[in-house]
Amino acid sequence: MYAYNQFDQTLVDQRVDQYRDQTRRYLAGEIPEAEFRxxxxxxxxxxxxxxxxxxxxxxYGLMKSHQLRTLAQISRTYDKGYGHFTTRQNxxxxxxxxxxxxxxxxxxxxxxxHAIQTSxxxxxxxxxxxxxxxxxxxxxxxxxxxxxxxxxSTLHPEFAxxxxxxxxxxxxxxxxxxxxxxxxIGLHLYHNEQGEMGFEVxxxxxxxxxxxxxxxxxxxxxxQELLSxxxxxxxxxxxxxxxxxxxxxxxxxxxxxxxxxAFAEMVEAEWQFTKGxxxxxxxxxxERVKGFFKPPNYLSVENAQSSLKAEMAAHPQFAKWYxxxxxxxxxxxxxxxxxxxxxQLQAPGDVSHQQMDGIASLADQFSxxxxxxxxxxxLVLADVAQRDLLSLWLKLTDLxxxxxxxxTLTDMINCPGLDFCSLANAETLILSRQINETxxxxxxxxxxxxxxxxxxxxxxxxxxxxxxxxxxxxxxxGGKQVYQFTLGGSASNDASLGKTLGRSIDQDQxxxxxxQILDVYVQQRKTDETFLQTVRRIGFAPFKERVYGTHQRSAx
Amino acid sequence: MALIKDQxxxxxxxxxxxxxxxxxxxxxxxxxxxxxxNGADDLACLLANANKLSVIAIEFETFADGRGFSxxxxxxxxxxxxxxxxxxxxxxxxxxxxxxxxxxxxELREDQDALQALAKLGEVSVHFQPSADGKGPAYMR
Lengths: 556, 141
Description:
Helix content of chain B: 25-40%
Number of domains of chain B: 1
Number of domains of chain A: 4
Number of strands of chain B: 6
Largest sheet of chain B: 6 strands, mixed
Order of helices and strands of chain B: EEHEHEHEHEH
Number of strands of chain A: 21
Oligomer: heterodimer
Largest sheet of chain A: 6 strands, mixed
CATH topology of the largest domain in chain A: Sulfite Reductase Hemoprotein, domain 1
Largest interface: A-B, 38 and 37 residues
């Protein structure tokens, strides 16, 4: 993966000193509250309900084992011994003190990490496919491009005070695992009919209050002009995005207001000034960055393989885990392993310091000392030789991280909700606990197949509920926490926004309703039909009848 | 009011331009080569008339209004050589970014210490982007 040179290190070190001075002046009363708020947010520091929260950047989800050890150490020293992986592939600490943040940033800088632009009205951490560079269905590795975007967007002087936050996602495979259609900018790497590699550029997607699927603003972008084109989009947005109402300030509102064709023309007009100039990426620079993402020294197929069949026969639980939590790898003899952060005892995405240290050692031992975080709040060991899978599974089991539930109902996305977040209207963690208690039969979950359940504690939609096959949105009504269900959302290639099922459900009825929805699916599905396919085929009526019909009868 | 200009504390300098760009444009009787503008003005029109101006003061009504950053950048890109002055809600924590997009003068908010602010220019000495100060992007170094 990318390694800092002296230049990168200087930037991060100086940024730590800059923030230390800002914190000092704030504590001395020299920076007004409203202004410091913006400065601290640009460094990932929120003030939550109970304590500050620091969000650490994990650029496009990639990290070295020693970096994860540092995160574990930070959680012990400055926090309560755990961290939380977010849907932007970052890590949040929920209990640091405001005064300690400069020291935390200094510790992070020692291992080439930072919290720059993890919040605020600026360009956020670029996200990508957690299987980039290893997936069997990959067209082009997205990581070098993410790194070039990271560099360009870091401390960008012109785009630090945008109308609102700005998120970019990059996908380079036939299946979109980066939710690129629900980002401010989504980039798809592909080969055109002439066989040239380039980007399809989508703009104006997003979730939040006004969920929108992104629209194509440019069908094919020559890769050398990636930054000049992004620069043009950002400048058009910075000058024209609404600033009078923060709920109407995202780029999607601008795109919808002027129309995608007019927006594309505005970008093209601006781009004429920058195309082919100093933002054009020289081939040497592209090659330099690509050089950081060369494949590791894989074993030959013969050496990487083992008697997998016999091992699975001897360990049925291992066989289930293999089927559910590992994926096809480009390299023969290797598997991609998804490490589940979705056990019954911890909130989705939460990880203890012992688990962080443990998984770091497993990465050292089995996956070239690297690991990745995913937007659905799990971890990935991307390069595991088949012969090591059984040992890895045994060790993951000891760490409580081998639950074979990836892609199933309990592999849910969950924002922290009212337990931590000052924006939330409703609790979400109680729902994940209830769901885990109610649906604890893994065989039932396997039988249901792929279901993406996504839960947000407020309309800001950090839990991506709009694109869940089943989405749950917590709202407050008359002092009571109730939950709205949506069905039929997806963040993949067939991206769609879920539609509301009906009136809100009381907290203690949420698992009941999930059960009813699943019952309808099981009764109505055709052979090999997934939950999403069934919803799309049969529509909402049978689900409404089951959920609300029953309620009305039992209430009568 | 303290003014930092061309990376120095300026003790003698012209007062803040008080003629709004829109008025300057509309009224042939207004004779001035210094105007006050902000993100609400017609930017294309400002760019077209910039060569008649020696001072363009870009106003930040609130520090969070980032339009002025792009305005300065586009003026410099068009070859404007005169003074671009940041006025309004201007504080030391933003002048480095302002400088990098092409501002060369900063009229600091009342509560700001000018010497302390001066030291903020170049606080982060390396950049990943091309900028108006002529330093190329990282890959050109």
